[in-house]
C-alpha cells in the first residue's frame, strides 16, 4: 500500500451506519460509528464501537476488524464483536475517497439484536 494512502487511512473515523431493516422486520436502524484504523503495508486493522437505539434501549457494541486495501482505494474488512459470548460478525466493502477524508461502503453480517442476517451502509469521516 502506498505510504500516502496508508497515512490517509490511519487514525480515527467517525460517522454513521444504516441498517436497511430493523429488529423483527421493523423500521431501519441508524447507528453512530467510531473506528480507530491502523494501516500497515499489507493489512488494515481497526477497533470500533457503534451505538444504536433498539426499541427504547440504547445499545453499545465494540468490535474488531481486519482486512486489506485494494487498488489504492477499496477496503475489505471482516468484523466481529469483541465479546466472544456475542454472536456478531460480517464483512464490509468500502471505498476511500480520493482526498482520503471519507469512507463509504456496504456491510452484510449477522446482527445480535435482529438475530438474523443484516445489511446496510456506512459513511465515515476522518477526524483531524
List the topology elements.
Blueprint: H1 3-9, E1 11-19, E2 29-39, E3 44-54, E4 57-70, E5 74-81, E6 89-96, E7 102-111, E8 116-126
Antiparallel strand pairs: 1-2, 1-8, 2-3, 3-4, 4-5, 5-6, 6-7, 7-8
Structure description:
The mean pLDDT is 91. The relative contact order is 0.23. This protein has one helix at residues 3-9; strands at 11-19, 29-39, 44-54, 57-70, 74-81, 89-96, 102-111, 116-126. Strand 3 (44-54) and strand 4 form a beta hairpin. The protein has one domain (3-126): Quinohemoprotein amine dehydrogenase alpha subunit, domain 2 (Lipocalin, Beta Barrel). It has 1 helix and 8 strands, in the order αββββββββ. It has an 8-stranded antiparallel barrel with strand order 1-2-3-4-5-6-7-8. The protein is mainly β and 128 residues long. The longest helix has 7 residues, at 3-9.
- Please state how the strands of the largest beta sheet are arranged side by side: 1-2-3-4-5-6-7-8
How large is the share of residues in beta strands?
Answer: over 45%
Reported by name, the CATH topology is Lipocalin
Secondary-structure class: mainly beta
Low-confidence stretches: none
Alpha plus pi helix count: 1
* Whole-number count of domains: 1
The total of beta strands comes to 8
Average pLDDT works out at 91
CATH class: Mainly Beta
Distance, first to last CA: 21 Å
Q: Provide the gyration radius in Å.
A: 14 Å
Shape: elongated
| CATH evolutionary superfamily | Quinohemoprotein amine dehydrogenase alpha subunit, domain 2
Query: Level of helix content?
Result: under 10%
Amino acid at each position: 500500500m502506498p505510504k500516502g494512502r496508508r497515512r490517509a487511512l490511519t487514525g480515527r473515523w467517525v460517522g454513521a451506519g444504516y441498517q436497511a431493516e430493523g429488529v423483527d422486520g421493523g423500521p431501519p436502524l441508524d447507528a453512530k460509528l467510531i473506528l480507530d484504523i491502523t494501516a500497515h503495508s499489507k493489512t488494515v486493522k481497526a477497533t470500533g464501537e457503534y451505538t444504536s437505539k433498539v426499541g427504547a434501549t440504547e445499545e453499545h457494541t465494540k468490535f474488531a476488524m481486519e482486512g486489506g486495501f485494494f487498488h489504492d482505494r477499496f477496503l475489505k474488512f471482516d468484523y466481529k464483536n469483541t465479546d466472544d459470548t456475542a454472536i456478531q460478525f460480517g464483512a464490509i466493502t468500502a471505498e476511500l475517497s480520493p482526498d482520503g477524508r471519507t469512507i463509504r461502503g456496504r456491510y452484510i453480517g449477522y446482527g445480535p439484536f435482529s438475530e438474523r442476517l443484516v445489511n446496510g451502509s456506512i459513511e465515515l469521516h476522518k477526524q483531524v
